[in-house]
Amino acid sequence: MEELNVPYRQIDIGGKFGRLNDPEYLRMNPNAVIPCLQEDDFILWESNTIIRYIAAKFGKDSLYPSDLRERASIEKWMDWVGCNLFPPIKQFMISFIRTPEDQRDPKMITQSLTEIEKLLKIIDDTLSNQQYLSGNTFGMADIALAPLAYLWLNVEIERPSLPNLERWYQLLTERPTFKKIVMIEIN
Ligand SMILES: N[C@@H](CCC(=O)N[C@@H](CS)C(=O)NCC(=O)O)C(=O)O
Predict the structure, then answer these.
(1) How far is it, in rounded angstroms, from Cα 58 to Cα 113?
(2) Per residue in 143-178, pLDDT tens?
(3) Are the C-beta atoms of residues 159 and 153 closer than 8 Å to each other?
(4) Distance between CA atoms of residues 167 and 151, nearest Å
(5) What digits encode the pLDDT tens for the residues 58-107?
(6) Ligand 1 contact via 47 beta carbon (within 6 Å)
(7) I need a surface site. Which of 13, 97, 164, 176 has the fewest CB within 10 A?
(8) H or E element in which residue 163 lies
């Protein structure tokens, strides 16, 4: 919405804000997770479905290609991010960021980091041939990857060098929307 200048009101919940299990929120999203979009009486959850909906509704000439192959090539990465990359990132988030140091399970942390590195190498190879994950221009797949890459690149861990991913990340940090929406406190 920020990328497309669509007016919206953001309500922070989850993490330190809590309230995910409030009956009022569970009625909107029974999964007790964020994000969740409300537009009039229409409720939508699943982050990448929300991205697709907003892009299709407001970004037809920019974020939502009408060419089916072009769009599918972007959606492939959105699904890949959600199905493959998100689970080990979430495991890492819970076992490292949200667990006090003296209670951390090193095996679990190593397991998730190994999987994340394997997957990000695939992204790094892809970005050696194209400017953005969505292709030659910024798009929906970059929006899907952005918060996960931000997290991995900004926690205190040892990381292998992934130069193409880092180049892509630098490009994103030049976007005011990325600064405002993604570069926030990790908790
Ligand atoms: N597949 C869901 C996953 C949603 C999800 O797991 N969200 C996390 C944050 S990324 C959450 O709400 N965690 C609870 C919390 O942060 O307190 C989506 O993409 O929307």
Answers:
(1) 36
(2) 999 999 999 999 999 999 999 999 999 999 999 999
(3) yes
(4) 16
(5) 999 899 999 999 999 999 999 999 999 999 999 999 999 999 999 999 99
(6) yes
(7) 176
(8) helix 163-173
